[in-house]
Write a structure and sequence with these properties.
Chains A, B: Belongs to the RNase Z family. The structure is a homodimer. Chain A has helices at about 40-45, 70-80, 95-105, 160-170, 175-180, 195, 240-245, 250-260, 280-285; strands at about 5-10, 25-30, 30-35, 55-60, 85-90, 115-120, 125-130, 135-140, 145-155, 160, 185, 190, 200, 205-210, 230, 265-270, 290-295, 300-305. The first copy, chain A, is of the alpha/beta class and about 300 residues long.
Chain lengths: ~300, ~300
Amino acid sequence: MKFEVTILGSSSATPIFNRNPTAQVLNINEKLYLIDCAEGTQQQMLRFDIKGSRIDYIFISHLHGDHYLGLVGLLSSMHLNGRKKALQLFCPEPLKEIIELQLKYSETSLCYEINYVFTNDKAPQLILDNQDITVETIPLDHRIPTTGFLFKQKKRLRKLIKERIEELDIPVPFYTAIKRGKDWEAPDGTVYSNASLTIDPEEPKSYAYCSDTIYNPKYFNQITGVSLLYHEATFLNDMLDRANQTHHTTALQAGEVATITGAERLIIGHFSARYKTLNELLDEARSKFENTDLAVEGKTFILSE
Amino acid sequence: MKFEVTILGSSSATPIFNRNPTAQVLNINEKLYLIDCAEGTQQQMLRFDIKGSRIDYIFISHLHGDHYLGLVGLLSSMHLNGRKKALQLFCPEPLKEIIELQLKYSETSLCYEINYVFTNDKAPQLILDNQDITVETIPLDHRIPTTGFLFKQKKRLRKLIKERIEELDIPVPFYTAIKRGKDWEAPDGTVYSNASLTIDPEEPKSYAYCSDTIYNPKYFNQITGVSLLYHEATFLNDMLDRANQTHHTTALQAGEVATITGAERLIIGHFSARYKTLNELLDEARSKFENTDLAVEGKTFILSE
């Protein structure tokens, strides 16, 4: 089952050096999930050929402008493009007031419904459970209420060994039961063990999105062992005081989080406008966690194909 | 005195085909005036090397998102870049509520002051009068309250004929009086006429910004004889019904407005996302008014140097 993350923006606070502020899109089993929606996200979607009509779920981590100021524009474009499907919006509660105020003064009545699910940073909440995944909030520690999001693929059914199934001429209506682990009893009474008919499914993948936050072990337990960790790394570690003061993380600390939580792979992003090039940030994170990459715009990270 | 208009965006409603929605920046005597501020305007400013710190005046025509959704991001960036100077914001009154709500939830207290001047579409208002220009609102006819803006350069003082002034050895303290039209009486009692010492200054230039509006002669009188007219031209004339229904103008009508009002030059913009290329719109406007150009992003139109 496809599970991939495409970076649409990785700048913090202000757009600069052709880096856009934060937005990412997940493609999980051909469903698109947008995480954060900074100003210019629509333009980035056009650039990377991501259709707004395919997005049914939007997650907003917090109400600093560099994480949501592109949302009302995107919602308006979906409206102008005749969207009919409801949209699920996972966000801090005040965002509803902000959106509704802007729609009111533009005299816009959206031609589709928004289903709001409000997040808070008090404790992890299970906010979505569909056929492919579950999504939990990750309470972070930033200057204003902020949550990350933990996407966990569901365990899939066992995979049929096609040749064996055909050889035994097992009728289709029995497939699901076998995928679920049942043995097969042939019409002649012979029993074929499930182990001889199926193989294990792929291990479910998981993705943790952690932006913005100060280094704080309170969320480490929740994200233990994820397949891919996105962690903010706003500053180099020589700016640790500034990171603490603004409730951000350094690249070194992001590498530490990945090591401590046993992530398989790390992406760092949310780079301060003070860094024109990003190699130093990457090197610093890699000094703690080798399997690290930069959240470069347009780049897609594949968890499973 | 420099007077030029740089186009930052010319799309209507949604960003598309690498066209950003509406924003323009005027440079008048090295002061920058931003007109409308769609999503992505900050990014366009970076692209065309326009410094936000140099903008002291922002004009918002109306509260459709494609004219203002980049504003809160720009205001935030000015804040993060340590702006101290007050900013003048000319806009419909509800924009204050929208801005303040967003600043409230991001817990941002701007480090500079915004001086609001509220516009309305009831009648033209003189909203700015500084040493270089006056600015009036142009009440337009759109679906929600909308005003254009009429920028008029002030008549400058007469220009001294440098050689003549040096030849007569006129002391500097007398220059201003002579520029204002006074004759010069030399120490020996000889009177030199002002006409022999000065030439006429450049004719003051004017710029009318008209977006968005249905074709409606109510504002024609106010914009008579402008040096440069920017007029929206959302559709080709075969979409006249749609233009009327959505309170927009066709390219043909924009050409007519320029002809009827005796503009010297016309720029058309605010192009619908249905037009991938713009030549047909240009040809149609030119069929009514030859001296027409397209509002192409990054292009600067010079009224005086």
